[in-house]
Amino acid sequence: GGTALVKNSSKKDINALAPTARTASSVIVTGHSGNMAGESSNLVVLSQKRANAVRALLRGRGVNQTIAIWSFGATNPVTNSKSNTKQDLNRRAEIYLIP
């Protein structure tokens, strides 16, 4: 929590996704944060950093088309559980490919 570091397992997923992403007309990356402390402007900034980190990884793998960034902060949680394990589900970036 509190960082925009990309896990090694996520890097493997991005590597696998990159060939398909290179053929997409555009890509959307959404950034999200945990919601244990509620919503605040710093969570939107953190979610933007997460999305930007994923965009940089995609760029490094040859994805040159438009990659839009949407930052949601804590507004779209996967879970409302307060456990750190469950909050890790909220601390994420999602990649959407537009054919």
Q: Which percent range fits the helix content? A: 40-55%
Uncertain regions: pLDDT < 50 for 5+ in a row?
none
The largest beta-sheet arranges its strands as: 2-1-3
Count of beta strands: 3
Number of helices: 3
Q: Radius of gyration, rounded?
A: 13 Å
- The H/E string reads HEHEHE
Query: Mean pLDDT, as a whole number?
Result: 93
- As a percent range, the share of strand residues is 15-25%
Q: Which class of secondary structure composition applies to the elements?
A: alpha+beta
Main beta sheet strand tally, sense and closure: 3 strands, mixed
Terminal residue distance:
32 Å
Outline: elongated
Tell me the quaternary state.
single chain
Structure description:
With 99 residues, this protein is an alpha+beta fold. It is 43% helix and 17% strand. The chain has three helices and three strands, in the order H-E-H-E-H-E. Strands 2-1-3 form a three-stranded mixed β-sheet. Helix 2 links the parallel strand 1 and strand 2. The chain is elongated and about 40 Å long.
Blueprint of the fold:
Layout: H1 8-23, E1 26-31, H2 41-60, E2 67-71, H3 84-90, E3 93-98
Characteristics of this structure?
99 residues, 3 strands, 3-stranded mixed sheet, alpha+beta
Question: In summary, what is this structure?
Answer:
It is built from three helices and three strands.
